[in-house]
Amino acid sequence: MKSSWNQPHQVTIEVDNPECRVRNMMGPLKIEQFNIVDIRGSSTGSIRHLVELAPDKISKVPRHMLTRTLGEFRPAGKSALWIESEGCAVCNTIISHGAFLVSGRGMTGSTITYSFLAPNFDAYKGIISTLEKRKFKVRLLRVGKTESRTEVLTETQHRILWIALQTGYFDYPKRINSAELSSRLGISPATLTETTRRGIRRLLENYYARACIELKCGKS
């Protein structure tokens, strides 16, 4: 078995980030409550932010600022939209280390709380180190790693299914599609599909086998 340091790490940090492009764009619109639920690079070199807002706030955002509107997230009852900008150093640092943003919530002033999934311990430490070298005030609120609690899944299946779940691959509507997720995982879409299919099958077989034992299947 590989070292658990190689496993994905879920990290929450608090950063004083006056450079945040989303906050600076939302401020003049008098929108104070928002949540960044994803960040992605684009082919043009800019950064796309998936921003979650209350439905009544969407109309305040000028159309020229929008890349795409996703309508309502379920069950949160929030609306989401893509906003594209050149990005700030914090977002660029997270993306450059292969991490996935789970959320970015504005706190008070220029303080933002970021939760992200780092692919391993080195990526997590690299993000913190890079931000501190750039003179950001970083406060570590939480760090944990995921470890499989069952021998049902292979290490690869566990890692990919966990990241897929956390990044909204199984949400409706999806927050990330197969092409985007496989690209960020560094695998082909076919490999992603096959790995998730085999992993889900293993989980279902194990679940129903256990359920059958508990119900004493085959016995009158």
How does this structure look, described?
With 220 residues, the chain is of the alpha+beta class. It has two domains: 8-145, no CATH class; 155-215. Helices cover 34% and strands 28% of the residues. It is built from six helices and eight strands. It has helices spanning 21-26, 89-96, 121-133, 155-166, 178-185, 189-215; strands at residues 9-16, 35-41, 47-53, 66-73, 78-85, 100-106, 111-118, 138-145. An eight-stranded antiparallel β-sheet has the order 4-5-3-2-6-7-1-8. Strand 4 (66-73) and strand 5 form a beta hairpin. Helix 4 (155-166) packs across helix 6 (189-215) and helix 5 crosses helix 6 (189-215). It is globular. 29% of the residues are buried. The model has no long low-confidence stretch (mean pLDDT 82).
The low-confidence parts are none
Helix content: 25-40%
The major beta sheet can be summarized as:
8 strands, antiparallel
Per DSSP, the total helix count is: 6
Q: How many domains in all?
A: 2
What is the β-strand count?
A: 8
Oligomer state of the chains in this structure: single chain
List the strand order in the largest sheet. Answer: 4-5-3-2-6-7-1-8
**Broad structural category:** alpha+beta
Q: Measure the end-to-end span.
A: 42 Å
Order of helices and strands: EHEEEEHEEHEHHH
Molecular shape: globular
Q: What is the average of the pLDDT values?
A: 82
Beta-strand share of residues: 25-35%
Radius of gyration (CA) equals: 20 Å
Q: Any key phrases for this structure?
A:
220 residues; alpha+beta; eight-stranded antiparallel beta sheet
